[in-house]
């Protein structure tokens, strides 16, 4: 049995147990050498590299990033904002997303179901700049009806990786 993930163009990407192991290792250690990765998943370095490149090309692997400790870089404030739009057409949502992508202080934007339309995570130098960002959001002409702001006091569990086995009905057997 193979796992399947849908890429942006709705093509199902077939993944076997070794692909899933490659992904699990890369989520934990994005800077691992191909040789070490190959040893960890039981492949030759050339076979491993072919698989990694296929996963990159199909956009299963979208990026390799460094997780920063912002407190060591600068003082900052992180806020979560729950945003409700006045109008609920797809055009309004697309306009909002387009404008949000232009704001560097907004580091994450999720469309929601329920009482609010979007959740955005912001990182600003201080509360005054967060307040200015809210004013900017309200004046963009995207129809923001309300913004509920929540200051992040502490990150207890950050999003770094996903246990792929929890997403697959019948995980492939490990070899």
Indicate the topology.
Elements: E1 3-6, E2 12-15, H1 17-28, H2 34-41, H3 45-57, E3 77-85, H4 90-100, E4 106-111, E5 118-124, H5 127-139, E6 144-151
Antiparallel strand pairs: 1-2, 3-5, 3-6, 4-5
Largest sheet: 4 strands, antiparallel
Distance between the termini: 13 Å
Low-pLDDT sequence parts: none
Fourth CATH level, the homologous superfamily of the largest domain: Lrp/AsnC effector binding domain/regulation of amino acid metabolism (RAM) domain
What is CATH's topology name of the largest domain?
Alpha-Beta Plaits
Please, how many helices?
5
Name of the CATH architecture of the largest domain: 2-Layer Sandwich
Oligomer: single chain
Strand line-up across the major sheet: 4-5-3-6
Q: What is the helix content? A: 25-40%
Structural class: alpha+beta
Report the strand count.
6
Shape: elongated
- Name of the top-level CATH class of the largest domain: Alpha Beta
Rg of Cα set: 20 Å
In brief:
This protein has 175 residues and is an alpha+beta fold. The chain contains five helices and six strands.
Report on this structure:
- α1 crosses α2 and α2 packs across α3 (45-57).
- The protein folds into two domains: 17-66, Winged helix-like DNA-binding domain superfamily/Winged helix DNA-binding domain (Arc Repressor Mutant, subunit A); 70-151, 2-Layer Sandwich (Alpha-Beta Plaits).
- The protein has helices at 17-28, 34-41, 45-57, 90-100, 127-139, and strands at residues 3-6, 12-15, 77-85, 106-111, 118-124, 144-151.
- The protein has a four-stranded antiparallel β-sheet with strand order 4-5-3-6. The chain has a two-stranded antiparallel sheet with strand order 1-2.
- With 175 residues, the protein is α+β, with helices and mostly antiparallel strands.
- It contains five helices and six strands.
